[in-house]
Amino acid sequence: MTGWPTRRGAAAGLVAAAVAARARAQAPPRRVVSLNPCLDAILVRVADRGQIAALSRYSRDPDSSSIVTVAATLPFTYGSAEEVVALAPDLVLLDIFTPPASLAALRRLGVRTAVFGGVDSLAESLAQVARVAAAVGRPDRGKALIARIRAAVAAAAPPPGAPALTALVFQANGFVSAEGTLVDEMIRSAGFTNVAGRYGLKRSGPVSLERLVADPPQVLLAGEPRPGAPAWADRILEHPALRVVAPRMHRAVFPQRLLYCGGPVLVEMAATLARARRDVLEARA
Asked: For residue range 233-254, what is the model confidence (pLDDT) as tens digits?
């Protein structure tokens, strides 16, 4: 029996260490870094503020971010592994486009990571919300946000028998959202028919002003030129040719920042689409 107490003590120590490791894995992370603006937008709505160690720098860009005001009050990084490690995170949220070397460096240093892909549908977007919320230990907040998004989409749906309206999302550089995207699904759920395919687009990309003017949709969901001196990319949004077809095409404001992400931004997108549809029908009455 010599050595039995020692072996028993060692075994007990291993069990205790395993239990402690499991508890740490299951406990909500205390310091979360997000390297993707779409994940940022979800994170600030489901995590405690004290859990957020840093967001991506892109969330401070007013042209593309829906959380500029909140992001301005939180730390940010440029996404380098050195910056992230210096923040001592216990969870990093990143996307599939993160450089493999950066991801490998984080994992080598024992930093837990959660890698997310893009979303092309409402279902995928809601699943992403649930996954982020679960990762930060706040699944109930994820469920509440999902319920809010579903309610906004339902509220934006047209009544039965309402007329369908053709529409096109039109942004700087003539960028158009194609069929089969999340934006396309949101447009259709609000009672519009996305006519991007009519211009030969099989994926999101630019449409020439000439083609748009020759065959305008009933509703142009257009971006707005940025403040200050107009950039070359914005000039198409204010081109005089668009005024020529104004009698046949209603123009509605559709901010560019609504295009880039799913998740909570869908609440604002749904309301924007519902308002555009309402304005068109009131103008026709």
From this structure: 677 788 888 888 888 899 999 9
Same domain for 65 and 183? no
Whether 207 is covered by a domain: the verdict is yes
Rounded-to-integer distance, Cα 281 and Cα 283, Å: 5
User: Do the beta carbons of residue 165 and residue 191 sit within 8 Å?
Assistant: yes
Domain that holds residue 183: 157-284
Q: Which whole-number Å values give the CA distances from 218 to 165, 186, 210, in the listed order? A: 6, 17, 16
User: Cα separation of 37 and 134, whole Å?
Assistant: 18
Identity at 33, one-letter amino acid code: V
Do 50 and 105 lie in one domain? The reply is yes
Quote the pTM value. Answer: 0.85
Q: What is the reported pLDDT for 14?
A: 45
Angle at 128 between CA 123 and CA 130, to 5 degrees: 95
CATH number where 95 lies: 3.40.50.1980
Q: For the chain, state the CA radius of gyration.
A: 24
Q: What is the pLDDT of residues 2-45, one digit of tens each?
A: 454 555 555 445 444 444 444 455 689 999 999 999 999 999 99
Total number of domains constituting the chain: 2
Residues 174 and 90 in one domain: no
